[in-house]
Amino acid sequence: MSEAGLAAALAKMRADGAGTDAQNVFAHYYRELESGATGMIGEDQISPLPELPYRGDLTVDGALARDALAHTVVLKLNGGLATSMGLDRAKSLLPVKDGKSFLDVIVAQVLALRATYGVPLPLLLMDSFRTRDDTLAALAPYDDLAVDGLPLDFLQNREPKLTADALEPVRWPADPSLEWCPPGHADLYPALRSSGTLDTLLDHGYHYAFVSNADNLGATADPTIAGWVAREQLPFVLESCVRTPADRKGGHLAVRNSDGRLILRETSQTPEADLAAMADLSKHRYCNSNNLWVDLRVLAEVLDRTDGVLGLPLIRNAKTVDPADSSTPEVIQIEAAMGAAVQAFDGAASLHVDRDRFVPVKTTNDLTVLRSDVYRLREDGHVVRVPERADRDDPYVALDDGYYKLLHDYEARFPHGVPSLVGADRFVVEGDVTFGAGVRVRGDATVSAAEPETIPDGSVLS
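^ thats the sequence. predicted structure below, dont judge the formating
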């Protein structure tokens, strides 16, 4: 390992058109990686988070809420392809509810908020090179979506994958695109700045950004939260939910003992000896929803002062050069989490929100719940639980990965749509099972099949 590896990586990035901020951030993390940093955050370095302010308790003057929303932009992370589901285009184009894609629903949400509050509320996407063309083509029919003077998207950066032994840019002539990787969601900040988008937003009078993943349809621009952020002059707010058993392996918030700042700790940053403590829901109560609010004026000041380098905790991600082929050489991907920026702002805060603002779709299990009758899609684009499920957690769904993980296999086994889950607590499928029309799940149901099986139309599983 030497400066030669870094120099080669930076030269490769410059040849690819990477901006100064992207190079600065990569160099910062490369030097950390070379020095042996792992990004681990031990249990002895943190304390549990105290009780957070709750969204349901906020009271904000209506005029203030509207004014804050008038200076807000909705920013969606839209760089993912959902390759884990077998997709090869933007995940946001996947039909998710009533035949509408994530992107269709997001547009409906934004247009409805504009009409209700009389605000411009621009929609801005952080696309990747692989998602941009398909996404912009899908948005073309919405001729009333663009806001004068503002782009619909900007591009996230990409960086070289590094050989695990020498930390040099990997070469893979069989498919050169596999030599590159995204830098994690924290690339949002340098990409906003280096693309010129941050300056454009500020020049047009936008003070706040509400940021979330495109696959989380619960993440809407809440005027009350916007007004609270403006009234309290908060530079950065991370929305958090109370953790459930499904969140045991996900990131959580804590207080850093050395300086009392809020931090985000991911599973990949937790030493093996501390995994049990991390999974303790009574100790670490809050998980990160990846919905955040940032004051763009403060962000610009901080990025100017740091040359685009926020210095967030390193995530050292060990992969193979071809993620679909474990026999290919091991590589290191340098990443950082977007929510980790909570530690970079003086006065940053977190807000406890209900679970209806955190409905991500990462697997076909999640997709099953959202497509089912547990949720309905309102005309304003809000995806809400039906009254029968208002006070109940979503049903637990576990479909056999061998037959349901990839979308084309999944949809072949639900040719008439997913079963009714409004009365379900738990739905587990083991084996190759195809479901007929009008199937209903009640309570706790497990379907196990040693051979391919079809569940007849109208069956009730319990």
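The chain has two domains: 3-357, 364-461.
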